[in-house]
Structures are given as C-alpha cells and as structure tokens.
Design a protein that fits this description.
Blueprint (H helix, E strand, L loop, with lengths): L2 H37 L8 H10 L3 H7 L3 H11 L2 H8 L5 H13 L3 H13 L4 H17 L16 E3 L13 E3 L4 E2 L1
Helix pairs in contact: 2-3, 3-4, 4-5, 5-6, 6-7, 6-8, 7-8
C-alpha cells in the first residue's frame, strides 16, 4: 500500500474511533438521565405508591397515607401518624388476618375495647399469630379496668395503669428497671 492509501486508512480509523467515543459518551449520558428519572427526586416515572413510600420512610406519615393506593400501607401510615380513627376506618375494609389485627390495634388506641376484641377474634380465627392473642388479652384487661362502680366516665380511654419502670437511681446497689406501683411502693 502506498503512502496515500495508508493516510486514507488512518483517517477512516480516526473517524471510527471518534464515532465510538461519541456513541459511548451519549450512552453514558442517557444512562445517567434514565437512572435519575427512575430513582431521582420525585420525577414523574415514580408511581404514587413509590412516592408515598419515600414519604413514609422520611417520617411524613400523613402525606404518605394520602398518597398510598394500597390500603394496608395507607392504614399503617395513618396509625404511625397517630390518626387512629382514620387507621381504623381503612383497616375495617381489609378482610385478612393482618387487616383485622391492625383494625383491633387502632380500635384499642381509641379505647374501643369491645370492637378491638372482636377484631382480634376475627384475626385469630383467620390464623393470626401470638401477637393477636396477646393484644386481645390486653384489650380484655383494659375493658375490665373500666368496669367499676360509677361507670366509665373516660369515654373508653384510660390513662396510665399506675405501673411504670424506672431506669435506676444511679445507685448500683439498687436494681435498675424496678417496677414502681402507684403510691410509691416498689414491686418485684
């Protein structure tokens, strides 16, 4: 091959290398844009549940609850926000063991112990675990605590049960975490 032919081949190779570099760079930019669209902050390609999930994990429970399409997540978000009335309303429509269990939890937080017991019974009959049985027993105990002469004047809500746990008194001879019963006495 003569000098002119070698120069032509070199020019072609330079152009091909330039095209490859350009195509590679464009693919990289496109990949970055796509990643940002899918995982970036609030772009349109994220579903409502994905946006709500991000809000939930950011501690914005009310915003998350309003954004979730999935009723279980919506109820959990309302519960975490402390809106037990809305949580109970959402959970009442979920006819699974988990739905009944969560409905019972929301009702118990509202002081509606009879309804909570019924929901826990439904959850247990559908195969819910030990937590449902324990929470049912707690609802029973709280309901009985309201049964006294003079009736229930707390609208189903009772305050502290008078038992607290102290973290200790900086005295190593005393047992940290002792039970303190109303009236100041210590129990074991």
């Amino acid at each position: 091959m003569d000098k002119k032919g070698v120069a032509v081949v070199r020019d072609i190779r330079k152009k091909e290398k330039g095209r490859r570099v350009l195509v590679t760079a464009l693919c990289g930019v496109l990949a970055i844009i796509l990643l940002h669209l899918f995982f970036g902050g609030g772009f349109a390609l994220r579903t409502a549940d994905q946006k709500a999930y991000a809000a939930f994990h950011g501690g914005e429970y009310v915003r998350a609850a309003e954004g979730f399409a999935d009723p279980m997540w919506r109820g959990v978000a309302y519960f975490k926000a402390g809106d037990f009335k809305q949580a109970a309303k959402v959970f009442s429509g979920i006819r699974t063991a988990e739905g009944h269990y969560n409905h019972g939890n929301a009702l118990m937080m509202l002081g509606k112990y009879d309804g909570a017991i019924g929901s826990y019974d439904n959850a247990i009959s559908m195969g819910a675990g030990e937590d449902a049985k324990v929470n049912r027993a707690i609802a029973e105990a709280r309901k009985k605590a309201l049964d006294f002469d003079g009736g229930n004047m707390t609208d189903g809500k009772i305050g502290s049960d008078g038992i607290t746990f102290e973290q200790g008194n900086n005295d190593p001879s005393e047992d940290a975490g002792e039970e303190v019963v109303e009236g100041g006495g210590r129990g074991r």
